[in-house]
Amino acid sequence: MFLQRIHHIAIICSDYERSKNFYVHVLGLSIIKETFRAERNSFKLDLAVAANYQIELFSFPDPPVRVNNPEAQGLRHLAFAVKDLDACVRHLTQHQVVCEPVRIDTITNKRFTFFSDPDGLPLELYEE
């Protein structure tokens, strides 16, 4: 197969500063590079997820609202692997992020929970 790995995940936000704060200060991702593209009136923020992955956070003037039905076609959610799910949930709760009750994956017997970013994008924490 010619695909080697996922290069990046792109997210368009409605409020750049709010989402930047969420991904950097609440989730703890580190900034690789921040670029303002004047011709598009748009920011592009490259964020590191550990050493192997990258999220690109974009702002655009008046982006359309995302379909929020969890079973809609397209990307369903973005999942992050964590070592201590309980500690992560406590951290998110301290930042006023609401997490769903922790569940058990019936196939792997691993624990997981869902929460949302500031624009309602569903995110998952999956305990390894």
From TrEMBL:
Entry's transmembrane regions: none
UniProt keyword list: Metal-binding
Keyword Metal-binding: yes
A GO term, aspect molecular function: metal ion binding
Entry superkingdom: Bacteria
Xref: CDD domains: VOC_Bs_YwkD_like
Gene3D superfamilies per record: 2,3-Dihydroxybiphenyl 1,2-Dioxygenase, domain 1
Pfam families reported for this sequence: Glyoxalase (PF00903)
Record's keyword annotation contains Hydrolase: no
PROSITE patterns: VOC
Protein's recorded name: VOC domain-containing protein
Organism whose genome encodes this protein: Adhaeribacter pallidiroseus
